[in-house]
Amino acid sequence: MPLPDLMDTAHYFEQAGVGLGREETFRIFLALKNLVDTHTLQSVRFWGKILGTSKNYIVAEVEYREGAEEEEQGEEGEGEEDEPKDEEEGEPKEGEEDNVPQPDYKPPPVIPKEENGTGCNKKTYFVCNEPGTEWVKLPPVEPAEIVCARQIKKFFTGDLNAPVISYPPFPGTEINYLRAQIARISASTHISPVDYFKFEEDDEDDSDGEGRDSYTLNVEFEPLRIDELTDPSLITWVHHMQHILPQGRCQWINPAMKTDAEEFDEEEEEEENEDQEE
Fold first, then answer.
1. What is the pLDDT of residues 14-54, one digit of tens each?
2. Counting Cβ atoms within 10 Å, is residue 180 exposed (0-12), middle (13-18) or buried (19+)?
3. Cα 220 to Cα 196, 224, 241, distances in angstroms
């Protein structure tokens, strides 16, 4: 069963004087069990609780079994038709003069999001307002959302469809803002004692400089002494989640570099233009 013993974990938090209380913790455990029963998951973890002005968010962090997420997305996408595209802006309409000056400004290239299972989208997150209510799957996070979330401070309302009114303008609603802040919190606060985790054998070679994002529990780990764990220098603690770069991704990408598909499309356009000129 992918669901850990939440009550046992809560017991240790209770010894430190933190937690949600035994009753609410047990209700969350039952809600997570319901999530496991309705989705094909490899692992699920209670991520935390985020308070809002009207309602709160219970957050679950999950990993799908191999291929299960693609099947679920395919079922959700069935029956959806492509909406007709509006006329591109900047094209002269009928009756307009052709000598209208056009701006030369070109927006910076859009930074693509990281694929599911990698970087900021390594995990998938579900939220609900109260244990027992319907779980809602959060969308993958976009780099632009993380970049903007770093520049603003907003209270959560508890409504995933609520607009995020801010400056600079946030590119999305509260569901996107929530996902961006979850990514930031996870990257900053997931820590563990040195050598508690180890990199997988496939990731030992980091010569390409892309970083390593997969790790496993080190069965040979020897627990550290209390005085070592409480050392003010914190040398015995490390982050086990990748850092989010200023670009809004864990893996840097050159936005000026074109993909093979884009280069192929440009070559086709050039050939079409040459044929039309002839």
1. 888 888 889 999 999 999 999 999 988 888 999 999 999 99
2. buried
3. 9, 13, 21
Please identify which residue in the block is written with the tokens 């850092």: 243
217 vs 214: CA distance, rounded Å? 11
Residues 83, 87: Cα–Cα separation, whole Å: 13
- Unique residue bearing structure tokens 């079409």: 272
Per-residue tokens: 27: 């209700």
Cis? peptide before 168, omega within 30° of 0: yes
Q: What is the pLDDT of residues 191-215, one digit of tens each?
A: 899 989 887 765 555 545 555 667 8
Check pLDDT > 70 for residue 74: no
Whole-angstrom distance, CA of residue 230 vs CA of residue 188: 19
Closest among 119, 113, 6, 115 to 58, alpha carbons compared: 6
Q: How far apart are CA 159 and CA 250, in angstroms?
A: 28
CA distance 19 to 241: 23
How far, CA to CA in Å, does 197 sit from each of 35, 229, 240?
27, 16, 8
What is the Cα–Cα distance from 12 to 153, expressed in whole angstroms?
32
The amino acid at 255 = P
What is the residue type of 12?
Y
Lowest-confidence segment of 25-39, 76-90, 180-194 by average pLDDT: 76-90
Sheet containing strand 136-137, strands side by side: 41-50, 57-64, 124-128, 136-137
